[in-house]
Design a protein that fits this description.
Elements: H1 2-20, E1 29-33, E2 45-48, E3 51-55, E4 60-71, E5 74-87, E6 93-108, E7 111-121, E8 126-137, E9 140-150, E10 155-159, E11 163-165
Antiparallel strand pairs: 1-10, 2-4, 3-4, 4-5, 5-6, 6-7, 7-8, 8-9, 9-10, 9-11
Length: 182
């Protein structure tokens, strides 16, 4: 997947710079946002995959193979997604949570997060992504062990050996001035 290789290459190139930046490489947790616009949880959730296994007795569904989950502008891809569903107060069937595994990518516009697994709890709007998490926001990237983000507020926290790459803003395509050598 080209997206993954671009992020990996960016982080590998940035690693020496992060180690030289006081406080950034050693950070253990940092605030981070993920949504360009507020997530509309009233939108229907659509899940597509190669296979679906249902268990009506425990209100569970397991989607496997090229899983694609969408709700409004939010998109998630994974190898497998376990879904729990049930009836809401109006008697309508709705998805309660999605647990995705196997190379999870969550994206909303220009912002993307990826990790080994993710759980999206629809009622609270909370997403927890774990396992070599990388978040990109434009040309900036943040990596860590666990990302917890609230899609309603766009606020979240990255924890566990956090690494950050901030690209400087340039105006009119001008190259930013060089940093003094240390």
């Amino acid at each position: 997947m080209r997206f993954v290789s671009v992020i990996a290459r960016t982080l590998l190139l940035a690693a020496p710079l992060l180690l030289l930046s006081p406080g950034i490489g050693a950070a253990q947790g940092t605030q981070i946002g993920l949504t360009a616009s507020k997530q509309d949880r009233s939108q229907p959730v659509e899940v597509t995959s190669e296979r679906l296994d249902l268990s009506q007795y425990d209100n569970r569904a397991k989607f496997t193979g090229n899983v694609f989950v969408s709700q409004g502008a939010l998109r998630m891809t994974a190898a497998v997604a376990d879904v729990e569903y049930g009836e809401n107060a109006l008697g309508e069937t709705e998805i309660r949570w999605v647990h995705a595994t196997g190379g999870v990518t969550l994206f909303n516009g220009v912002e993307a997060a990826e990790g080994k697994e993710a759980t999206y709890t629809l009622d609270s709007g909370e997403v927890v992504i774990t396992g070599d998490v990388v978040v990109t926001q434009g040309e900036n990237a943040v990596a860590g062990d666990t990302l917890t983000v609230n899609l309603d507020t766009g606020k979240g926290v990255m924890e566990g050996r956090v690494r950050v790459l901030f690209n400087k803003d340039t105006k009119d395509g001008a190259t930013p001035p060089a940093e003094p050598a240390q």
